[in-house]
Amino acid sequence: MGLLSTIFGILCGFLNSIFSLFAFGIGTSIGLVIGYYAFINALPTDVEDVKVCPLVEEDLETLQRLIPEIPLWVKNPDFDRVDWLNRFIENMWPYLDRAICATAKNIAKPIIDEQTPQYKIQSVEFETFTLGTIPPTFQGMKVYTTDDKELIMEPSIKWAGNPNIIIAVTAYGLKATIQVLDLQVFGIPRITLKPLVGIFPCFASIFVSLMNKPHVDFGLKLLGVDLMAIPGLYRFVQELIKDQVANMYLWPQALEVQIMDPEQALKRPLGILDVTVVKAVKLQRKDLLGKSDPYVKLNLREEKVAFKKTTVKRSNLNPEWNEEFSFVIKDPATQVLELRVYDWDQVGTHEEMGLNVVPLKDLTPDEPKVLTLVLLKTLNPNDPQNDKPRGQLVIELVYKPFKEDEMLDDIDDSGKMEKAPEGTPAGGGLLVIIVHEAQDLEGKYHTNPHVRLLFKGEERKTKRIKKNRDPRWDEEFQFRLEEPPTNDRLHVEVYSTSSRIGLLHSKESLGHVSINLVDVVHNRRVNEKYQLIDSRNGRVQIELQWRT
Questions:
Q1: Which of 165, 61, 55 is nearest to 105 (CA)?
Q2: For residue 208, which of 163, 245, 262 has the smallest C-alpha distance?
Q3: What pLDDT digit, counting tens, does each position of 370-410 carry?
Q4: Which terminus of the chain, N or C, has fewer Cβ atoms within 10 Å?
Q5: In the chain, where the domains are located
Q6: Coiled-coil intervals in this record (predicted)?
């Protein structure tokens, strides 16, 4: 009996399960059918077909909604149609994309490097940076004519692009990625080129203003999560960007990009001065334990251009250089060439051994002239210190004026100096250090060079380049200072490091040099190659800028 009861219970449970599934299927099917018919019967029955009408027959409200989509050259006679420009940009966009992205990276990198230490961020790198395949579109362009030497343009720009910008941020050992995509920018900037000059590119500065608040929209993902989907954040970010941009660049305020010094640009180059520093004779001994290590600095007096400099001749009172230099001449009647001889010292300032000047008005055009200059203490003819013999400097000069049909771009790049950013202390400035390249480096165990900069207790480093005796970095570093660094020095050291585990000499110095910064303060820009100490032939090219 017990066995029969068990079998009967199992059979009843099985039948109960079968009937339950059958009832669920029937109930679901009946529910779907009833819901479908209820939805169909609930739809309005008085829906009419869409009627296509001419635009003139539409109501005013519909016309107002369509007006923003109409190009400005259609509804505004002041704007010209620029289809040719759109076709040009469309064909050039793959190349413009790479060029713009590379320029943006170069501009952003020093700014990021300056800001990251205060937020304890270890690194910020661009993993992906592309503006996508969709170029911006110019809806029209307005051009103004004025009596001044300037050109004013107002292009209407619309860009609904598909950029992909991925930034990797590393902090406290953790890495996070931020992605910017689906960027939209609509706006009408005013671009002013002035003053117009007769030197390529034919204008000295670019001024950019916004005629109204721009429309900016984009997607922002953090670790794959769309931040713009957070309630309230999207509108807050949009309004914040509009207000910040408007406060800085809404007309009449403008962003100025200086291409060249306007005063210098208005002076057309008239010729080239070729200078050959031949030799010096009977120089004074300056070193206590040796002779002297002379070199010559050349510049045009009262011109804000970088010094030009010969190499250093070690332990030599009668050095021979035979080194050539060129200067762009804009006013030969007033410009003066100044030459100063210095004794190079590893420690302390370089001691001046003598100087002299050559007025360019004394030169006959296209006629080489060899001069033997007596080195003086000062340029005061009545100074009794000038009676003491200091040696002589032999140079060869030739001034080559341009012909009327010759055109020369102004290669004097002193006008390209940028200004210090807003917030720079009054009386201070921004010291910019650009490490360009090094040559003839030679390590005893390995040559994987990078440059280490020490200034006022702060340390900055370039990236490491593997197995290269002639590396090129082109990396920029900035220091914001309260006062000009006239009494400060920059210590530059080139290191080689190896990542091989177990290597006994994993780090070695390839040479160093200490640079006095007084020259860059006076001349605004110095771009020189420095001979590395403790290196056989190694040299490093450092560009210094003092922006105020």
A1: 165
A2: 245
A3: 999 888 888 888 888 888 888 899 999 999 887 755 544 44
A4: N
A5: 69-263, 268-404, 429-547
A6: none
The domain made up of 268-404 has a fold known as Immunoglobulin-like (2.60.40)
For residue 173, what are its two tokens? 């050992």
Residue 456 near residue 488, CB atoms below 8 Å: yes
Cβ-proximal residues to 333 (8 Å cutoff; 6+ apart), any chain: 360, 361
Is residue 360 within 8 Å of 337, Cβ to Cβ? yes
* Residue 18: its H or E element: helix 2-42
Q: State both tokens at 40.
A: 């169909």
Same fold, 268-404 and 429-547: yes
Query: ∠ at Cα 395 (398, 315), nearest 5°?
Result: 150
DSSP letter assigned to residue 501:
T
Of 43-47, 277-281, 383-387, the range with the highest mean pLDDT is 277-281
Per-residue DSSP letter, 80: B
Give pTM, 2 decimals.
0.38
Domain 429-547 -> CATH class: mainly beta
In order, the DSSP letters of 45-75 are: S-PPPP----GGGS-HHHHHHHGGGS-HHHH
Q: What count of other Cβ atoms lies within 10 Å of the Cβ of residue 199?
A: 19
495 has which bridge partners?
Answer: 450, 509
Nearest Cα to Cα of residue 181 among 158, 160, 196 = 160
Cα–chain-centroid distance for residue 109? 8
Query: How far is residue 135's CA from residue 183's CA, in Å, rounded to a whole number?
Result: 11
The residues pairing with 528 across neighbouring beta strands, listed in sequence order, are 542
419 CB-side CA count, 13 A: 12
237 is written with which tokens?
């970010």
- What is residue 362's three-state secondary structure? helix
Burial class (CB in 10 A: 0-12, 13-18, 19+), 454: middle
**H or E element that contains 352:** strand 351-359
The residue count of the chain comes to 548
CA distance 217 to 235: 10
Residue 488: burial class (beta carbons within 10 Å; 0-12, 13-18, 19+):
middle
Give pLDDT tens digits for 5-42. Answer: 544 455 455 445 544 544 545 555 565 556 545 545 55
∠ CA(517), CA(380), CA(371), 5° rounding?
80
Q: Measuring CA to CA, which residue among 175, 77, 168, 160 is closest to residue 129?
A: 168
Encoded tokens for 449: 């060079």
* Amino acid residing at 495: Y
Please name the residue ranges forming H helices in 216-368.
Answer: 233-249, 262-265
